Structure formats: structure tokens, C-alpha cells
Amino acid sequence: MTETPILSVSDLTVRFPIRGPFARKLGEIRALDGVSFDLAQGEILGLVGESGCGKSTLGKTLMGIQAPNSGSILFEGTEIAGRTPREARALRRRLQYAYQDPGASLDPRWKIGKSLEEPLIIHTDLPRRERLEKVREILSAVGLPAGHADLFPHEISGGQQRRVGLARILMLNPEVVILDEPTAGLDVSVQATVLRLFRELRDTFDLTYIFISHDLSVVRLMCHRVAVMYLGRIVEMGPVEELMEHPKHPYTQSLLAAIPRVNGPRVTENFWLEGEPADAAKLPPGCRFQGRCPHVQPICRQEDPPDRMVGARSVACHFAGDVFPPKPSTKEVQNA
Ligand SMILES: Nc1ncnc2c1ncn2[C@@H]1O[C@H](COP(=O)(O)OP(=O)(O)O)[C@@H](O)[C@H]1O
Ligand SMILES: [Mg+2]
Question: Where does the chain cross the membrane (predicted)?
């Protein structure tokens, strides 16, 4: 890993207006509320949190699909937020976003080779011979035979379609790839294969990943660092082992308490994270987790906690490091 971050995000904010009849603005959702982090070359940063906390919005904003209201995104030291679409396209070629099932976006009427060649026709002036060469190289990197270039998507399996989708993302030599829920909907055995492929591709192509997932056990396997999001803000971020062994934010503690364990007692219910997150359109003054936090104090209802550094960890809690999860109260069941 080099010293300068490949990506440096600061104070990124995205708000979505809520409109009523006649497009009258009734309020706004703070989908990203002052998000900051650095990404080192070669790093895999996990991004976790409940549905609706802003993970995809962050991915899309980095990609330029969503414009931020404010904040800065430095890609290798160059500002990429607030560019014209034309400038942004050139800069962002080296940043790619992989949707949950990248194979689903293949054109069913096109042979796979054509789908893979297309980004090179649009974005480069490589001659045909070199384009085909590149198609073969990338197919082989994702573990598919060169002959697959002559097949249509319906002639290959779902798993192979996913690989082709990934291959398409790799055609333009990206440096940072945002993987948005890349293992959702896969069964466990296929999941392992896909995760292995991500690791191999990272080594082969020198990639850096932002790995979005709500599956903490997958994040633990894959990532170096993890950022935990809650209602548009990173509430805790740090090295993956440390954060998962000793979570310091009460929200992280509750998320971890909710994951089933493979070896050992399994907690079947989310035993103390109660209720729904606050309404993202009407955040209360103070901490956004106050309504669900078992340790809530008067200050939490008044002041939004700043990010506190505790060792290598940043924690947005007034009592970071000084609160502990209560003992599980519900029954533990034997591992099935
Ligand atoms: N295009 C949009 N217009 C309005 N609200 C949106 C839009 N995209 C996302 N949101 C809202 O922003 C919040 C964050 O959504 P999202 O980033 O998709 O969360 P996640 O990927 O973590 O599930 C949610 O409250 C969602 O309803
Ligand atoms: Mg999402």
C-alpha cells in the first residue's frame, strides 16, 4: 500500500427532496450526511449497515451517477466531485461500479464477445485485433474459456453470466471497483467461489475495492477495514478484526450481536436492537442512534457526537470505548 490514498472522500453530503402534490418540497432525506474516509491502494474497505442507510448512494456518488450537495472526492489527488459530465467520464473510467448481479445487465441479443468489446470501442481507439485479444485475456482472468465470446448470455449459466458481468467491468482497466452486495442471492458454496475470484482479480489487476454488504461474516472474510453506516453517517470505522472483536459503537455492537455464528451458540433474535431507525427525513437533534441506544444519556439528545479516534478506530459516539453491550437475554440455541 502506498502513502497517498487512491481515493479521499471528505464531508460528502447527499440530500433527496421529498415532494408532495404539485412537486411542493415537503422535506428532505439526508442520504449521506458528512461522510469522510480514505482508501489506500490495494485495500478492501467494507461498507456495512442496514438497508436504507446510504451504502448505494455513497457508491453512486463516487461514480458520479448521483451528484453530491457538498463535499469533496479526490481520486489520486484530483477532485472529481462537481465536474462536467464529459470530464467526469474520463476521470471515472478508472472507477467502476458493479451492481448486485452484473450479469443481469448483459444484452441478451448480443454475443458475449460483443458485450465485452463494446466499452473498448466507446472509450479507446484500440484496433480490432487488440480489442479481441483483450476480450480473451479478461475472459480467462474470470475463469471462462475464450470460446464463450461466441455464445449468447442465455447459453451460459447464471454463475457464468455473473463472471461475464465482472469481465465487462474489468475491460477498461479500472483501479477502484465498488462491489454493491456482490454475494446477495448466492448460496454459500457459490459465494465462496465468487469471493475467491474477487481476491484473485484484485491481485492480478492491482485493484482496490469498496465492498458493500449487509453480511458481516462475508465482510470479515474479505475486508481489511470496515466502515459501519447508520442513517447516512459512518458511525464506526477501523481494522476489520479489531472492530468485529471489540466494537465500540453501540450500533456496531448490536449489528454484531445479530449475526449467526458458525461455530458456537447462535443467537436467533436480534436481542436488543429494537425499533426502526429514526426517520431519515426528520433526524432528531443530537445522536442519530439515540432512539435505539440502550446507553443513551442526556448529552446524546443534545449534541451530535463528533468522530472520536480511539486507537486506529474512529467512533461517532460520546461514550466510544466506554460502553459495553448488555448480556444476551434471549435463549441461545444449539448450532444447527
Ligand atoms: N433516487 C432517490 N430519490 C429519493 N430518495 C432516495 C433515492 N435513492 C435513495 N434514496 C433514499 O436514500 C436513503 C439511502 O438509500 P440507499 O443508498 O439506497 O441505501 P442502502 O443502499 O444502504 O440500502 C434511503 O432513505 C432511500 O430511500
Ligand atoms: Mg443498496
Answer: none
